Amino acid sequence: MAGDPLPYPPRLLYYDGKPQEGSSSPKTFQSISPSTGKPLADVHTATHQDIDAAVASASKAFQSWSSTPAIERSRILHRAALRLRERNDELAEMETADTGKPFSETSAVDVVTGADVLEYFANLVGGGGLNGETAVLRDDAWVYTRKEALGVCVGIGAWNYPLQIALWKSAPCLAAGNTMIYKPSEVTPLHGTILAEIYAEAGLPPGVFNIIQGPGSVGAYLTSHPGVAKVSFTGQVSTGQKVAASAAGGMKYVTMELGGKSPLLILDDCDVERAVDGAMMANFFSTGQVCTNGTRVFVPEKMKDAFEKRLLEKMGFIRTGDLLDPNTNFGPLVSQVHHEKVLGFIKHGIEVDKATLLTGGPEKPEGIKEAYKNGFWVNPTVFTNCTDSMKIVQEEIFGPVMCILSYSTLDEAIARANDTPLGLAAGVFTENLNLAHSVIAQLQAGITWVNSWGESPAEMSVGGWKGSGVGVENGRRGIEAWVRNKSTLVDMGKAVPTAFAKI
């Protein structure tokens, strides 16, 4: 007897303007619910033959899409953004099922911010944002530049913000006139074909946006494909290094948005309430599964006791439970593999690093319902009396684990904050804005905040320094990652200056 049907229909590939079953007796894998540990949907894995077909489809579509007037491309993207907003709650529920993030978050952040970026780039190109520049050299000579699309581009997404990341990559890519083959993370794949269908409903021609599903081997074949002009990847540092190396071998353009171990500096004049709120948002939002999380919290020695006291009081405001309940604000980790990894870090912090466990630990949160007993739940955890040499302080955990580090002087805190091979994000909390700007200028990170943490509006270019990435996404600079520049010098003189005139 067949088992009960899965909550979601099978997820196919999508290229040439329609859903496609994987070729050659397709293999499938399953998307697993983080909250229950149960399957959500069967997903078709792409073969090399499927990928070749998708690249061919995208290559064919590029010729007409890149020559479509920017204002026409803009109108299509605007229609897609409107459709996303109309389906916000439906898509948010899907993201909650796939990622384990509470609906209170996915409904307010994931779909909304993705649609924001789509509208931003639609407005940018529709308003002449891809116009080049001119420079007059002399009365009879001038230079002009053109910004031209690259060709077939690959986007490889991370599992923590599936739909948002797909939009962050596809919006500027398509707005600039490129075509895209997008590979969602195999951990959170439900959104892929839905987004492709929304683009098609908005009027995107066949082949312009395509979905390929599968594990890392699928991504590896994509990034090395000779028909691909650019690769944009979001994920962990070690994988990003491999992707960048593969793409560089084919002289492809790359954008890499990788991990971090970001410092949050609380200065001694900061209000304790604000400091605690900022630190909690920087560590426990999305169950700590955010690449920009400020997991190294530097607190002045004289403020440490008051900070920890108020933090412990506010930890009670973190609420697990039914993920569709609007009062729930904390979900499980995304997968069993990741759950084991995060628990390993927590146990290492206790047993090896010998940090002081202020709250939390490796046990599951109290009060988890029977339906969720097999889910990948973890306690929000805080370590204090940490030192810079501890593993939990040095390595990215990507989970709800805060490390409190005390400091005596601001210069010391800045130096310690920068003592990492990564440089994705950093932030400062202080009442002194002049001092804040001075500190931010000294922090080695590509994304920084003052008296805030985590907000990344469409207008803000974001990207890492050092080992945290190459290039930026979003903002006016974000479109530059999806075009190449052609410079032309025009000489209107009657004669060609030459070094080979007769003497």
Automatic annotation (TrEMBL):
InterPro entries xrefs: Ald_DH/histidinol_DH (IPR016161), Ald_DH_C (IPR016163), Ald_DH_CS_CYS (IPR016160), Ald_DH_CS_GLU (IPR029510), Ald_DH_N (IPR016162), Aldehyde_DH_dom (IPR015590)
Entry EC number(s): 1.2.1.3
Keyword Metal-binding set for record: yes
SUPFAM superfamilies cross-referenced by the UniProt entry: ALDH-like
Domain spans labelled Aldehyde dehydrogenase: 24-487
Comp. bias regions, Polar residues: 21-36
Organism superkingdom: Eukaryota
Record's signal peptide: none
Reactions performed catalytically: an aldehyde + NAD(+) + H2O = a carboxylate + NADH + 2 H(+)
Region listing for Disordered, in residue ranges: 1-40
Catalytic residues of the enzyme: E257
Biased composition (Pro residues): 1-10
Swiss-Prot/TrEMBL keywords: Metal-binding, NAD, Oxidoreductase
Gene Ontology molecular function: aldehyde dehydrogenase (NAD+) activity; metal ion binding
Family, as annotated: Belongs to the aldehyde dehydrogenase family.
Descriptive protein name: aldehyde dehydrogenase (NAD(+))
